[in-house]
Amino acid sequence: MYEKNDPNRHVTNTESARNIDEILAEIDNSIRNEAGRNAYELSLQVTQAAPHNIEAWLLRATLAPSLEERIVCVNHLNELGVDHQDRHNVAFFALKELLDRDPFLAYLEETDDLYRVINGDHMVISILKKRSPITSPSQERSNPLASAHRWLMLAIIGLTLAGVGTLLFTPLAALAAIPTGLSPRSRSERISSTIVFILAIALFLIGVVFSFLFVLHFIG
Amino acid sequence: MLTRSLYLAAGWFAISLFATLAGGYRLRNRSIIVSLGWLAIVLILGDLWALLTFGILREILIITGVAFIFGTIWIVLLPNWNAFGQVTWGMTLLATLLFIIYSFMVTAFTPLNTLSFVIALDFFIIEAIALLMALTHAYESLDLFCRITWRRQVKNIQPASGYAPMVSLHVPAYNEPPEVVASTLNSLARLDYPNYEVLVVDNNTPGEENWTRIRNLCLALGSKFRFVHLDRWPGYKSGALNFALAHTAPEAEIIGSIDADYIVEPNFLRELVPAFDDPTVGFVQAPQDYRYDPSDPFAESTYHGYKYFFEVSMPVRNEHNAIIFCGTMGLIRKSALQEIGGWDEWCITEDAEASLRILKLGYQSLYIKHSYGRGLMPYTFEGLKKQRFRWCFGGIQILKKHWSALVPWARWLDPQNQLTPAQRYFYLVGGLQWFTDVLNLIFGVFLTLGAISNIFYGGQFSIRPLTGPLLIMPAVFLSLHLWRFLWVLRQALHLRARTALRSMYNFFSLGWAVTLACFQGLIQKKGVFLRTPKSKSDSKILGALRVTQWENLIGLTFLGSGVAAFLIHPELKTLWLGILLAWQASLYLAAPYYSLLSIQSGSAPTIRQTAIDRGRPIAENRAARWAWASVFILAGLAWIAFQIPLPNQAPSYSRYQPPDVPPRLLLGIGPTLTFQPTSGTPVPTLSGTPDRTVTLEPTIGTPSVAPTPIVISTGSPTVANSPTVMPTDTPPRCTSTPIPSGTPSTPTPVPAGLPTPAC
Q1: Contact (CB, 8 A) for B486 and B500
Q2: What residues in A contact B414, CB-CB < 8 Å?
Q3: Percent of chain B beyond pLDDT 90?
Q4: A&B contacts, CB < 8 Å
Q5: Nearest C-alpha of chain B: how many angstroms from A171?
Q6: What integer pLDDT is reported at residue A11 of this predicted model?
Q7: Are residues B94 and B194 located together in one domain of the fold?
Q8: A107-161 pLDDT, tens per residue?
């Protein structure tokens, strides 16, 4: 039913796994028989026995009598990092209830997947971001052609010095692009380095024209 | 030939633009015959003018043939435009390209000292970029008014029966006056859509009592309304919106972001949500509209300045599926937003940035030109200035981050990049257009240097070569493009001339803020906001003037130097220089005018200035120092250039300089044209005589008036004081500095007037 992402699952022996499955089934039965208290007690047992079992935590989060405990369960679920709609629902309604009571949340930290916040009662809460991680410009700096692009940009600016700067910087841009062109990690890198190379040549030619005119004016 | 071709192309450009704006845009038929016919008429009209004034038949025939082919290509490439639009665009492009070529030839082959050449070349580069930017504006205007077929224009979306996905409306609030938020929330409570929630996210508002009132409002409005206060939350508005996304109801499929000062119409969701029935639609945008008092001239002009974007730019962009998501009054598919990773907290215009990433995934966007809500505008010029700074800064951030996705070869680099060429064009140009104001300031600086050189050296020096076309054509381009802009404002926004003019100036008055934002956007890694200078005085007037102190200084410098140049050397060229500088000054002096106007109106309904301050503060005074340092460096270079003597004799390369055509010839005044066939190849050459008769003398060799290497120019924009024409086979002489004003040692008919700009 659920995708289990228990890193210790491979060391769990078959027998204990069967026991956990049996307890989970018993919890389901208890819920159907409206024996909520019993179901909750069982969910406590199973989360202690299998702290990485998503289904167990989901059931406990549903059965927990207090909001604080539900929040603790949600935190566990969120930290386990498995994407599942039921988890989203449980987490959403628990947080909603908490915020209906007190809408104050203060920022602590965040990861790609989670916010960690603290509420007015100093309870730490994990909140799932529910979105793909975004790449910030600083993370994008690993581009191997970044230096070639920088030289190219300087070469463009170099046009304003009658192309002399361009003559200086375009070879550097081309040289910076060559290693990537010779051993590209991807097709994109190969094309990118080729384009840098072509642009460097084109700019160099413009620089030659401008510089030639500059020399003409220099010698009168 | 180049000079005459340029004049002729300018004539075609003017004729076609006049005809289009005079009513041609109303033509709603599409026929290639009509288009070709109109192209032929425009070309013939221009040819007649040229033949009667400055033209030479053989040249006219050649350039007309080229123009016909060029125009035909654009008629084919723009099948959805009417004939007037197609021809106007073709002729605008042709005239611009010819001018750029001409300008380069003059810059490259006019005898100049080395430093002057470098500065002149830089000026040429800037001028060429400015002209290309002007082309993009012209294209947008023509696309709006001359387009016959609108494939993506949507007026009413017919909802599929029963389609009512849940919408989560996010209302970010920071230090908002509760009464303003109350109006917004009450309007959201009146939405006639069955399935929505409203999540008010208050981030970092200091003082519990301030946000508790908003929370109580939410409680009073019922279960659809939820409230959360985020403390010490990073990421400004984007950070708050990202939290809202995390805490959105799981069943919500669509997200809307509503500014806390908007009063939304009840039908907002009912009429926009059906667009999402198409799973390829990523986001939908309706215009942002504003509440204002029409009797308040500041508010009125600001309002129309905003409206221009939604009435002109967005419909055009929509046709190419390249609209910008503007946040408020827009809806976005939740799954698309999650797919791109939510709002970018690095960018201070996160909404526009998100739309680019969504389009990159291949989603469709839709613009519905119907107002569904009205918000508040900044009620002071200071607020307006800060807002424009933020928009521009954000635009530059987007450009810096996504330039590689926007270049023509982007698809080769990243096959996942689904942006079409049109989308890449609009996003790239949209970012680059901000730099127009930077170029404008640079032009103003060049003009001022020209005025100063006139004041101190009597106009003997010029960094830029002075020729007729360099004098006339920028004026032609400037006036025609301005006229078009004003006309578009009037037509698209249905404004009276005076209101349109005021709105246009409101737009231009923010040029300094945009210039600063461009520089800051390039050098700053993270978002900053502008901290304007504050007055210590209690006087509102002084306060308003203090806010625009830099604009005042720039405007007065421009104006003062122009007036001084004319008063010290009252002649036609300094008059023209004065006019140009007065125009430039008016753009900057509009800032104190609007600042004073804004305090006069005093109709501010609420204070809402803090919401636009996002990022690290940067003092305007500090930011401006960089600009002033650049100006002083340029002035220093110009001064050095003035000290270096020019070559005594005309260098050999000057033979490649395009020949000049005396400007008076264009009107058929003064010089007459005669042919005096002589031996050799009958290549006609213009030459002047002391009685201002220009003779076409066929000569062997380069067809030209004697090259006009006279950079050190004097005289008026007409033929100079001693319009004797040098024989073409005589090497032209350059003068060495200094030369007394008004007595050029060269007998060349230098149309010495004023270039735009000249030093």
Answers
A1: yes
A2: 188
A3: 49
A4: 112
A5: 21
A6: 42
A7: no
A8: 999 988 899 999 988 999 999 888 887 766 655 556 788 889 999 999 999 998 9
Please tell me whether residues B496 and B621 are part of one structural domain: yes
Cβ count near B313 (within 10 Å) = 19
Query: Which residue of B lies nearest to A86 if distances are taken between CA atoms?
Result: B250
What are the tens digits of pLDDT across the range B320-345?
999 999 999 999 999 999 999 999 98
Nearest to B226 among A99, A137, A188 (CB): A99
What are φ and ψ of residue B485, in 5° steps? -60, -45
Distances in Å between the alpha carbon of A53 and those of A58, A69, A76, B490?
A: 9, 17, 10, 67
With beta carbons less than 8 A apart as the criterion, state whether B43 and B12 touch. Answer: yes
pLDDT given at position B689: 30
Interchain CB contact of A190 with B (< 8 Å): no
3-state SS, residue B322 = coil
Split into its structural domains, chain B has a count of: 4
Check CB contact of A130 with chain B, cutoff 8 Å. yes
How far apart CA B12 and CA B22 sit, in angstroms, is: 15
CB spacing of B647 vs A220 below 8 angstroms: yes
Mark whether B369 and B516 lie in a shared domain: no
**Residue A220, token pair as written in the block:** 């009168």
Report yes or no on B416 lying in a domain: no
The Cα B553–Cα B420 span in angstroms is 44
* Whether residue B613 has pLDDT greater than 70: no
Give A17 to chain B, closest Cα distance, Å.
Answer: 32
**B410: in domain:** no
Q: What is the 3-state secondary structure (H, E, C) of B405-450?
A: HHCCCHHHHCCCCCCCHHHHHHHHHHHHHHHHHHHHHHHHHHHHHH
Give, in degrees to the nearest 5, the angle at Cα B329 between B175 and B357: 95
Range(s) of the domain holding residue B303? 166-377
- The more confidently predicted of residues A200 and B544 is A200
B534 shares a domain with B545: yes
Which 3-state string (H, E, C) describes chain A? CCCCCCCCHHHCCHHHHHHHHHHHHHHHHHHHCCCHHHHHHHHHHHHHHCCCCHHHHHHHHHHCCCHHHHHHHHHHHHHHCCCCHHHHHHHHHHHHHHHHHCCEEEEEEECCCEEEEEECCCCEEEEECCCCCCCCCCHHHHCCCHHHHHHHHHHHHHHHHCCHHHHHHHHHHHHHHHHHHHCCCCHHHHHHHHHHHHHHHHHHHHHHHHHHHHHHHHHC
Mean of all residue pLDDT scores within chain A: 83
> Length of chain A in residues, anyone?
220
B435/B428 Cα distance (integer angstroms): 12
What secondary structure letter does DSSP report for B24?
G
CB contact A96 to B (< 8 Å): yes
Residues of B in contact with A134 (CB under 8 A): 340-342, 344
d(CA B690, CA B720): 10
Does residue B355 have a pLDDT over 90? Answer: yes
The answer to whether A195 contacts B242, with C-beta atoms less than 8 Å apart, is no
β-sheet bridge partners, residue B230 = A105, B203
Question: Is this structure's pTM higher than 0.90?
Answer: no
Give the pair of three-digit tokens for residue B308.
């221009």
Q: Which chain A residues touch B247 with a CB distance below 8 Å?
A: 92, 95-96, 99, 127
Residue A132 near residue B338, CB atoms below 8 Å: yes
Question: Is pLDDT above 60 for A10?
Answer: no
Q: Which CATH architecture has domain A9-101?
A: Alpha Horseshoe (1.25)
In a domain, B419, yes or no: no
Q: Nearest-CA distance from A145 to chain B in Å?
A: 12
CB within 8 Å: A220 and B231: no
A106 touches chain B (CB under 8 A): yes
B649 residue type, one letter: Q
State yes or no: pLDDT of B741 exceeds 90.
no
